[in-house]
């Protein structure tokens, strides 16, 4: 008997074959035993042979409902069936795809070739295609992007396979990726390539060989902050777009020209080809002229000026870092020279500047290592040159390689590196320490110390605090200190000179202004400066070095008379001879300093000088 749970159809098959075998002569097995044996054979056969119908139903349902486009092809790659998803994707009825070759679905020749190659690899070597993105043909909308996979399915006969094409819609995601890729390498505001893209373009331009030239131009808009703050950021953005358009019109298409926006108001131009520096300069001048033409926005005709740094060299000379550095240095020089102009990179100037910048970079270490010292210049009364009016204190740098450096050689570098305040603090501390020592030794005969403030220190908001701290540390009255400044510091809009000087004057410090003419002198009443001394400097003093010209004498007398009206004491600097000193005295100058007394003096020398004058 069959085992419980056996399929009725299999039981009938087994029983029929058992009866047949039982009637066969020579068979010694009983009918029941044969029946059980054959039933087992049939059940094993059923278990070994899959049920095709359910599997076929499952595949058909998946094929029809799949959101992925599917095309079934014959062994030659001709489509025999396509699902609805593929029809929707390609904008046609699925039936219209029958009979087409799989490669013919590609949009461009490149895509057709890739599909043809993938089909050959599949049918010849059995290598399924990894998903790749291709352009396919849409019947109405033109090319569209699809993620394509080409594989195979087994056929009805053993050893046969048939190609299957699967396509997922990638058009939107591809366009989004392209947009993001574009944004990653382009400036959103102007549409120009950004710094990243420009860096890549520069590396590519320098990768070539041959005798071609490469030119790099850096441009900065002069005073763009005035436009942005005065007319609003919206107008500023429109101006930047206008600048980008003008630069593109001048440079794009010229010598493989590429224009990029590197920063807020900074642009760059890259050129490569057969050209000379004068040709590049001509393009830059054309661009500067175009930028100066007003752009009318919101009722305002806005023209901009720009500074440009230019470097031109053979492609094979140096890498990108050298080229970028050279363009930046040339731009910096253009701005230092007054802006609204271009400057061509000069290797000789660069070599000199490198030495200067190396010097500026080590100021902090030199200060910490004790390489700075005070250097003095005495100011004497012209009516009695044996009497000291004051001692001017300055800084000298004893550089281990370059020797003795005066302040005019390193103060501009300190301004760039941010070391002006530390140097000024050290100068105040050391000069007031020396003053305290003089007052202790010489009493009332000790001179005042005069410290010239570099612009960065004069405009420092904490100047009053710095001075007060040092006066208190050395137990000195403020009257022992003279602080000297100049026109540039007084007129510097970013500083607080007027407020600081008012407080310092209230403390008792003596304030000194260096002047070279009537305009400088009139700053005192115009701004209510609490100045007690003025120091004549420059041409007005030099004019009396070798004689007396009527116009020069008249100018000097006017300055002296005006100073007396303002109740100011007037001195002079840069006096080289006793004859020059005498001429100045005769026309009302009270005190002077310069080489007619001493160019400079060390700490010990000034101590001896004070002692000699004190007696």
Automatic annotation (TrEMBL):
Domain of life, source organism: Bacteria
Coiled coil: none
UniProt cross-references to InterPro entries, sorted A to Z: Biofilm_reg_signaling, EAL_dom, EAL_sf, GGDEF_dom, Nucleotide_cyclase, PAS, PAS-like_dom_sf, PAS_4
UniProt domain GGDEF: residue ranges: 212-347
Listed SUPFAM superfamilies: EAL domain-like, Nucleotide cyclase, PYP-like sensor domain (PAS domain)
Domain EAL, chain residue ranges per copy: 356-614
Domain PAS residues, every copy: 55-126
Protein name: Uncharacterized protein
Taxonomic source organism: Amycolatopsis japonica
């Amino acid at each position: 008997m069959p085992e419980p749970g056996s399929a009725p159809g299999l039981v009938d098959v087994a029983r029929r074959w058992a009866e047949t075998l039982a009637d066969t002569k020579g068979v010694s097995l009983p009918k029941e035993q044969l029946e059980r044996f054959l039933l087992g054979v049939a059940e094993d056969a059923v278990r070994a042979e899959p049920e095709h119908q359910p599997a076929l139903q499952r595949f058909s349902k998946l094929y029809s409902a799949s959101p992925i486009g599917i095309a079934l092809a014959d062994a030659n790659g001709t489509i025999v069936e396509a699902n609805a998803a593929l029809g929707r994707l390609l904008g046609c009825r699925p039936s219209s795809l029958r009979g087409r070759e799989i490669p013919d679905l590609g949009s461009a020749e490149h895509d057709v070739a890739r599909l043809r190659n993938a089909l050959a690899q599949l049918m010849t070597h059995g290598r399924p295609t990894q998903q790749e993105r291709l352009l396919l043909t849409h019947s109405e909308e033109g090319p569209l992007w699809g993620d394509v996979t080409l594989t195979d399915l087994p056929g009805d006969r053993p050893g046969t396979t048939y190609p299957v094409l699967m396509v997922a819609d990638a058009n939107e995601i591809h366009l989004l990726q392209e947009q993001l890729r574009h944004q990653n390498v382009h400036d959103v505001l102007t549409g120009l390539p950004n710094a990243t893209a420009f860096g890549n373009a520069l590396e590519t331009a320098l990768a070539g060989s041959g005798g071609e030239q490469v030119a790099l131009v850096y441009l900065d808009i002069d005073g763009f902050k005035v436009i942005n703050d005065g007319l609003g950021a919206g107008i500023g953005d429109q101006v930047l777009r206008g600048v980008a358009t003008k630069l593109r019109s001048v440079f794009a298409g010229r010598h493989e020209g590429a224009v990029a926006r590197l920063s807020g108001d900074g642009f760059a131009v890259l050129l490569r080809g057969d050209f000379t520096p004068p040709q590049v300069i001509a393009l830059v001048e054309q661009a500067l002229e175009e930028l100066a033409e007003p752009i009318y926005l919101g009722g305002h005709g806005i023209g901009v000026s720009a500074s440009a740094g230019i470097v031109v060299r053979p492609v094979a000379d140096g890498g990108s870092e050298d080229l970028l550095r050279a363009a930046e240095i040339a731009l910096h020089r253009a701005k230092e020279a007054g802006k609204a102009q271009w400057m061509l990179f000069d290797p000789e100037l660069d070599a000199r500047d490198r030495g200067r910048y190396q010097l500026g970079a080590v100021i902090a270490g030199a200060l910490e290592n004790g390489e700075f010292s005070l250097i003095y210049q005495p100011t004497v009364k012209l009516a009695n040159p044996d009497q000291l009016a004051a001692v001017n204190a300055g800084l000298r740098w004893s550089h281990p390689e370059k020797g003795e450096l005066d302040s005019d050689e390193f103060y501009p570098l300190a301004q760039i590196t941010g070391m002006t305040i530390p140097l000024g603090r050290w100068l105040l501390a050391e000069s007031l320490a020396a003053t305290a020592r003089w007052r202790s030794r010489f009493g009332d005969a000790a001179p005042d110390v005069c410290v010239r403030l570099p612009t960065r220190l004069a405009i420092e908001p904490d100047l009053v605090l710095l001075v007060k701290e040092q006066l208190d540390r050395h137990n000195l009255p403020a009257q022992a200190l003279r602080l000297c400044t100049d026109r540039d510091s007084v007129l510097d809009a970013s500083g607080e000179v007027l407020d600081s000087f008012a407080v310092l004057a209230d403390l008792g410090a003596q304030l000194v202004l260096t002047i070279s003419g009537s305009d400088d002198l009139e700053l005192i009443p115009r701004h209510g400066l609490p100045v007690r001394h003025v120091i004549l400097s420059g041409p007005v003093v030099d004019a009396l070095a070798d004689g007396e010209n009527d116009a020069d004498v008249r100018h000097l007398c006017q300055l002296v008379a005006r100073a007396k009206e303002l109740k100011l004491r007037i001195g002079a600097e840069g006096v080289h001879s006793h004859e020059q000193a005498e001429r100045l005295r005769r026309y009302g100058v009270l005190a002077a300093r310069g080489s007619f007394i001493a160019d400079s003096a060390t700490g010990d020398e000034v101590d001896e000088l004070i002692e000699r004058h004190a007696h």
